[in-house]
Amino acid sequence: SYLSIPRLLAAARETGCGAVHPGYGFLSENADFARAVMDAGMVWIGPPPEAMEAMGSKISARERMRIAGVPVVPGAPAASGTFSEILSLGLPVVVKASAGGGGKGMRVVTSPSELSEAISSCRREAAAAFGDSTVYVEKYLDSPRHIEVQILADTHGNVVALGERECSLQRRHQKVIEECPSPAVNANLRARLTSAACDAARAAGYVNAGTVEFLLEPSGSFYFLEMNARLQVEHPVTEEAFGVDLVALQLRIAAGEALPDLPSVPSAHAIEARVYAEDPDAGFLPQAGRLLAWAEPSGPGVRVDSGVAQGQAVDVHYDPMLAKIVAKGRNREEARRRLVVALGETIALGVMTNLSWLRRLLEAGPVVRGELHTGLVETLSLPAPTPPDEVFAAAASILSRAAAGGSSAPGSWPDPFDGRFRMGGGV
Predict the structure, then answer these.
(1) Which residues, including other chains, have CB under 8 Å from residue 269's CB and lie 6 or more apart?
(2) Beta bridge mates, 151
(3) 215: closest CA among 93, 101, 77, 71?
(4) Is the pTM for the entire model greater than 0.70?
(5) Rg (the chain; Cα; Å)
(6) Per-residue pLDDT of the chain (427 residues; tens, 9 = 90+)
(7) What is the DSSP string of 356-393?
């Protein structure tokens, strides 16, 4: 139902809705949905459909950026008969879905023999995930940073950038930790990045909030990756670092107002962790169950954006993200320490989560030092710590009590929790 444009429009009419904010998932970058909202006489709180279409195809977006003078990663089309052109880029290369995102329809190729199958498999995955099998190939950059720039554009021709976000801590191309500002970006590089991002927005005829993503090499060279024609999941770190409300600004732009004066530099450092219902010790498999207990952290500089409550069912029909926990500090280290504490104070019982894994990631040496790149998470060993003796003692006491109630066979033991406490569906 959340992908049904007619049902969403019907709900909007029934509630007397005058404007639609598409969020940052589902139909948020669907130009047909934007047009349908406007055709129904409602205000669309987002970019023009034409801008969404211009940036929705990575191939056309790359060409538009190249013409605008924004640097792009060397690439080639993946049409039949162009293997020699692709291989001339030099291996490794990465095959990408033109309409893709979130790591879907993407494969890294390290030898010529892998190229044909990689293109075929990416086409199949892209067609299934996005309804578009078009793919292209880029030179694979070894260990770059993933840097994105928050832009805002109004209907009066003003385009501004609110700094950059560091999004290099990713697992399987999915962001897990984001921060603002980036520890790798100085004032000079920030000026170059934000200038390129604003040029990209103007080239697309962009209005409202959007994000221009770049890959940054250690040399300081950066390349356009893609543009997200919507609000980002990680927008809270920009809000906390710059002291702004991006959603309020979206509303003002959609109402036809000109952008107000906005800060040009961050006044704080903010870091966000994405809390997922997943089991890090089982290959990060998504988990389902019921949240028997859910308690959010509090404290100086801590913000929680969540979509769950105690007693709520967590099922397989939606993204497994439960919450975003954000910590702000006077500097990066203060923000990092506050976030580690906040994650430790978060209580989630009933489903497995990545809370403990996130804390270990934030305590890893390279992360503490800000030595980040997109492949870092895959290289780190973050084993779960051994539980303290008190946990083993409590478990032994429970099992002993259960065993004393009948047969020594585990299957015949009474439930020591009387059915009241279950982790992920099991005792």
Answers:
(1) 179, 180, 181, 241, 328, 329, 330, 331, 332, 334, 335
(2) 161, 210
(3) 71
(4) yes
(5) 24
(6) 788 999 999 999 999 999 999 998 889 999 999 999 999 999 999 999 999 998 888 888 889 999 999 999 988 887 755 788 888 899 999 999 988 776 788 999 999 999 999 999 999 999 988 888 999 999 999 889 999 999 999 999 999 999 999 999 999 889 999 999 999 999 999 999 999 999 999 999 999 999 999 999 999 999 999 899 999 999 999 999 999 999 999 999 999 999 999 999 999 999 999 999 999 999 999 999 999 999 999 999 999 999 899 999 999 888 899 999 999 999 999 999 999 999 999 999 999 999 999 999 999 999 999 999 999 999 999 988 887 888 788 888 888 877 776 544 444 445 444 444 434 433 3
(7) HHHHHHHHSHHHHHT---TTHHHH---PPPPPPHHHHH
At 118, is the secondary structure helix, strand, or coil?
Answer: helix
C-beta separation of 98 from 57 below 8 A: yes
Query: What's the one-letter identity of residue 358?
Result: L
Q: What are phi and psi of 28, to 5 degrees?
A: -65, -25
> d(Cα 95, Cα 105) in Å, to the nearest integer?
8
End-to-end CA distance of the chain: 34
Q: 181 preceded by cis ω (within 30°)?
A: yes
Q: Is 250 left (phi over 0), alpha (psi -120 to 50) or beta?
A: alpha
274, 324 contact by CB (below 8 A): yes
